[in-house]
Amino acid sequence: MKGTEQFKAIIKNYLDNRAKEDELFRAKYETTTRTIDDIVNYIFSEVQKSGCYGFADEEIYSMAVHVVDEPTLEIGKPASCNVVVNHHIDLTEEEKAEQRDIALKRYQEEELRKLQVRNSRPKPSKPKVPQQAELSLFDF
C-alpha cells in the first residue's frame, strides 16, 4: 500500500517542522529507522481499525508522532485505501474578485435560464365545462 505522494509530503512536512520546534522529538526523529512509508502504513491501518471515515488533522499527526516515538510499535500490514487530503488555498485579491465575477455570471445565467424555461412552457388551459342551467329554490 502506497499513500498518495501528497499525503506523504504533508506528513513528512509536519514531522520535519515538529522536529525543528521540539528538541526531544528531534532526537527520536533523527535516529528512527522508520520510513515515511512505515509511518503512512501505520496511520492507514489504525484508521481502518477504527472504522471511522474522517479524522481531524491533529489526530493523524499524533499517529505519525506516535510511530516515531515508539520504535517497537507494530506497523501493521499494508492495506489498499484511498486518501483524501483537504487543502487551504490562499487567493490574491485579484483572484478573489475574478472568482466572484465568474460566480456572479454563472448565477445570473442560471436565473435567466430558469425564467426562460418557466416562460416557454405552455400555460395549461382550463377545460371548458358545459354550463348547466342554474336552478333556483323557487323552481321546486
Following the backbone from N to C, one meets helices and strands in this order, namely HHHHH
CA-based shape: elongated
Number of strands: 0
Gyration radius, in Å? 32 Å
- Secondary-structure content class: mainly alpha
First-residue to last-residue Cα separation: 93 Å
Strand content: under 5%
Mean pLDDT: 83
The percent of residues in helical segments reads: 55-70%
What oligomeric assembly is this protein in?
Answer: single chain
- Spans of at least 5 consecutive residues whose pLDDT stays below 50 are none
Q: What profile does the largest beta sheet have?
A: none
Give a brief description.
The chain has 140 residues and is mostly helical. Helices cover 59% and strands 0% of the residues.
Account of the 3D structure:
By secondary structure, the chain is mainly alpha-helical. Among the domains are: 5-69; 89-120. 59% of the residues lie in helices and 0% in strands. It has 5 helices and no strands. The chain has helices at 5-21, 23-31, 36-50, 57-69, 93-120. Helix 1 crosses helix 2 and helix 3 crosses helix 4. The radius of gyration is 32 Å and the shape is elongated. The N and C termini lie far apart (93 Å). The model has no long low-confidence stretch (mean pLDDT 83).
Please give a handful of descriptors for the protein shown.
mainly alpha, single chain, 140 residues
SSE diagram, text form:
Elements: H1 5-21, H2 23-31, H3 36-50, H4 57-69, H5 93-120
